[in-house]
TrEMBL record:
<dbReference type="GO" id="GO:0009055">
    <property type="term" value="F:electron transfer activity"/>
</dbReference>
<dbReference type="GO" id="GO:0020037">
    <property type="term" value="F:heme binding"/>
</dbReference>
<protein>
    <submittedName>
        <fullName>Uncharacterized protein</fullName>
    </submittedName>
</protein>
<dbReference type="InterPro" id="IPR036909">
    <property type="entry name" value="Cyt_c-like_dom_sf"/>
</dbReference>
Amino acid sequence: MKISTHINSKTENDLIVKLVGMGEQTIYKLADIASITKLSESLMPAFPLSEQELVDLVSYLEGLK
């Protein structure tokens, strides 16, 4: 399985991550992880957002509070 995530913290035995698109943290045992690769580019789209798309995005994010 391959996942894209933000690493919140790492201990001697565990990797604590916040999965992209999810609000909660997940703990994985380092012994169960085959490899960790840092992305060379952002998960955000390379194309710019229009003004309306930006307004819609901010409105959506504010609604998540």
